[in-house]
Amino acid sequence: MLPGRKRKYRGWQLIKLVGLIMLFFSLDAVSQADMISSQYMNSQLMINPAYAGVRNSFSVNVLSRQQWMGIKDAPSTYAINVHSPLNKRMASLGASLLHYKNGPVQNSEFTAVYSYLIRLNHQMFLSLGMSAKISHYNIGLSSLEVIEDNDPSFAQNIENSLKPNFGAGAFVYSPNFYFGVSMPQILNTELSQDETGGAVLEVYRTAYLASGYAYSINKNVVVKPSFLARLRTSANHSFDVNVQMMYKNLFWIGASYRTNNTFASLLNVQVSKSMAVCYSYDFSIGSQPSFNSGSHEISLTIDSNSFIRRNRDRRFNRKKVTKKEEDKGVQSIRYF
In the chain, is it the N or the C terminus that has fewer CB atoms within a 10 Å radius of its CB? Predict the structure, then answer.
């Protein structure tokens, strides 16, 4: 077997192994509180630690999501994701800060991420990542309106509950394709009342599969279909199918469908070479009546190369290129 083919073969065997491990962990798992975002393709750090560093820049993504507008105490999410390669190395570091509120439940999470990049060939990389997370929960049960005022199940709040967790993932990508498999929360989380002993909140494992492909119609127009699967053992598996079209690297327009009969429209504007703003609007479709005015999500993404040194080993380049050709080479996945 030729050396190049041998490296590629070993890389795909490693991908298969990581995928089998993720699916094994998800066999007895369901999820009731995992992160939902219609803009998953812009920054996947919250669902896959291996995404850290693949943009080959100091990357910051700030996100705000307001679900089911018009409904009292509807879910809201705020998140900040930061990650960057380490200078002249194949390793990357990152961190995420998330605050989620849904009715009486408030959850804040801090996640630290490490990833390592492996070159499979001149046009393909494999990133392997690990994460460590600490979650802080407050559940205000006493503020809920109940039928029986003396119900002990709603008499005691859960305050300042801390739960640790960890995750793992793999992410393989080329200039026009990516595929990721991950499990950001490997341990199950259960919050119970001391008085009643009953479970108030249960958060189980979820395995994520994500993939996308960029197809150039001409020099000005690029079409990129993508999908995201949230795998759970219960009947509520969730799948997002998305199609975006880019014009002259200035803006993206797209549409997304989620399998709970939710449709989303997306607009992504490249404000400058290093800054992009994305807005999405989700709304229900089908015969079932909707009691809300949809969900709004907006994010800001900044990619800067001012804080990192050039690292040719992380680029999609041939072995022998001039410095001028290297500067023109595709630098990272964000240039799809």
Answer: N
